[in-house]
Write a structure and sequence with these properties.
Elements lengths: L5 E7 L2 E9 L11 E2 L4 E2 L20 E6 L2 E5 L1 H7 L1 H5 E9 L8 E9 L4 H14 L1 E9 L2 E10 L2 E7 L18 H4 L3 H13 L12 H15 L24 H24 L16
Parallel strand pairs: 1-7
Antiparallel strand pairs: 1-2, 2-8, 3-4, 5-6, 7-9, 8-11, 9-10, 10-11
Helix pairs in contact: 5-7
Length: 293
């Protein structure tokens, strides 16, 4: 695995588990360069002194907090570490809570935790206890000069640390106009509710993350490769963007749309069963799909 981005320990009670933090997300997203459309030269980000207008080298840049208007307190990397040594070296577990109690909106960026050799036993012990009890460790950790709320959770053989958002970061949901729970007042009938349940049950499946991929990214790459293949380099397309069809359901046709959806799901399931009974299909990686039971 790549070099760790942080080393410290998991602390709960008097137990300390030395660990290394690794990025869980690969940096393979599409990267675009800003260009001047007149000659397709790259347009860069300039580090310019606002008073002199001259460029500033990286080694001459420091971090400053504007304490008063135009007056700054300058901090070095050593200052950030000195502010709270324990906080910069510890995943400090505050409490253990039931995993399902945390709303998904709180979760942000995942990281993988691996123990160093002295921490193997304690790491395995904590992982197994969290699994068996269905608990998540709610912790605080400082990464790159900022303190984060985080969730420590087991995943297969790993302990995963997911950075979270603090409660005061969320906007007041009361500002939004959302329907209440009085379904009758909203015109939702018992038949519509039953039909919607049927549709949800018909679409129920196991969580298989390998089934899902970034289709939009693939389509963009296909477009880029096609343009390059046809020699369309250093050119700006004048094609108008396609308009998406307006889709929606009003109260009158909601039941009909639900029925059609249930019917279509049934046809798809039937076709899938017939396909599985024949010769096994191949995935893009060449592996045969497992037959349905």
């Amino acid at each position: 695995m790549a070099r760790s981005i942080w080393k410290g320990s998991i602390a709960f009670g008097l137990v300390q588990i030395p660990v290394a933090l690794h990025a869980a997300i690969k940096g393979d997203s599409l990267s675009f360069t800003m260009l001047d459309k007149r000659n397709f030269s790259p347009v860069g980000y300039e580090r310019v002194n606002k008073k002199s207008g001259k460029k500033v080298a990286w080694q001459d840049i420091v971090k400053g907090y504007e304490y008063r208007n135009g007056k700054y307190v300058v901090l070095t990397d050593a200052d950030f570490a000195r502010a709270n040594v324990k906080a910069t070296q510890t995943i400090d577990i505050q409490a253990f809570v039931d995993a399902e109690q945390i709303p998904p909106t709180y979760f942000d960026v995942p990281y993988l935790l691996a123990p160093t050799k002295p921490g193997q036993k304690a790491y395995a012990l904590l992982r197994e206890v969290l699994k068996r009890e269905g608990k998540v460790g709610v912790a605080k950790v400082v990464i790159r000069t900022r303190e984060h709320l985080a969730a420590l959770m087991p995943q297969d053989d790993l302990l995963v640390l997911v950075l979270m958002r603090f409660a005061d970061e969320f906007r007041d949901a009361g500002e939004l106009d959302v329907p209440g729970h009085n379904l009758k007042g909203l015109g939702v009938t018992a038949k519509e509710l039953d039909m919607a349940k049927t549709l949800v049950k018909g679409m129920a499946d196991e969580w298989r993350p390998e089934r899902y991929h970034d289709e939009y990214r693939e389509d963009l790459m296909r477009l880029i490769e096609e343009r390059a293949k046809h020699g369309e380099l250093n050119s700006v397309s004048a094609e108008p963007a396609p308009k998406a069809e307006a889709r929606g359901a009003n109260v009158v046709d909601l039941m009909q749309l639900l029925k059609q959806s249930v019917s279509q799901r049934g046809k798809k399931r039937g076709a899938r069963r017939r396909q599985v009974k024949g010769s096994p299909r191949k995935t893009r990686s060449g592996r045969a799909l497992r037959k349905a039971g």
